[in-house]
């Protein structure tokens, strides 16, 4: 396997770990459920990050902007907020978040195209119950918490605080899902 391919696979694994570390850090006692649909999670992680860095979060939400351009709108807004608040996040965490939310083209049926992010691919949710919620197993949470320890202290703080800021957006989305899809 080439060094280029190994580096790419390592980057993908690190991004996926970061996503789960943020989500696990968002767990607050009994508030431990997550939506099953990846655009909700994309919105939650981006808005939680924007809130953490002191930006204007909540401007682009999945349930408030469910149009084909949602991903483009939220990623463009995220990029703008990251530029405004450039010195808040550690460079490693920022680079992984930017890479994980970068748009890429995904072919769709009828020769249409859609955009997707790596976060959408990492977060598969529960495909048997779309637009619902689920809990992570305690074993998985414990394993993810062990992984958080690999960061330097300032990076660990970023991950945990982004998770804490993400929880409010998760709760809002879960309420929306319960009211509109149950």
Report the principal-axis shape: globular
Strand content: 5-15%
How many structural domains in the coordinates? 1
Low-pLDDT windows of residues:
none
Largest sheet: 2 strands, antiparallel
What is the H-and-E element order? Answer: HEHHHEEHEHH
Gyration radius over CA: 16 Å
Put simply, the count of helices is 7
Q: Please give the number of β-strands.
A: 4
User: What strand order characterises the main sheet?
Assistant: 1-4
Offer a concise description of the structure.
With 182 residues, the chain is mostly helical.
Descriptive keywords:
two-stranded antiparallel ribbon, 182 residues, mainly alpha, two-stranded antiparallel sheet, globular
Q: How would you describe what is shown here?
A:
The protein is mostly helical. It has one domain (3-181). The protein is 59% helix and 9% strand. It has seven helices and four strands. It has helices at residues 3-25, 38-52, 70-84, 91-100, 118-122, 138-148, 153-181, and strands spanning 33-35, 103-107, 113-117, 133-135. It has a two-stranded antiparallel ribbon with strand order 1-4. Strands 2-3 form a two-stranded antiparallel sheet. The protein is globular, with a radius of gyration of 16 Å. The mean pLDDT is 85.
């Amino acid at each position: 396997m080439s060094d280029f391919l190994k580096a790419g696979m390592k980057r993908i694994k690190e991004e996926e770990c970061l996503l789960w570390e943020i989500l696990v850090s968002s767990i607050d006692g009994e508030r431990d459920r997550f939506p099953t649909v990846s655009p909700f999670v994309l919105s939650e992680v981006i808005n939680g990050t924007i809130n953490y860095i002191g930006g204007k979060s909540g401007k682009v939400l999945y349930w408030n902007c469910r149009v084909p351009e949602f991903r483009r709108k939220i990623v463009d807004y995220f990029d703008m907020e990251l530029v405004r608040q450039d010195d808040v996040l550690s460079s490693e965490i920022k680079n992984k978040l930017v890479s994980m939310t970068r748009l890429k083209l995904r072919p769709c049926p009828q020769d249409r195209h859609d955009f997707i992010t790596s976060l959408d691919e990492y977060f598969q949710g529960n495909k048997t119950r779309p637009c619902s919620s689920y809990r992570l197993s305690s074993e998985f949470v414990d394993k993810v918490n062990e992984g958080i320890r690999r960061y330097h202290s300032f990076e660990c703080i970023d991950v945990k605080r982004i998770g804490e800021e993400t929880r409010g957006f998760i709760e809002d989305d879960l309420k929306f899902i319960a009211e509109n899809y149950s």
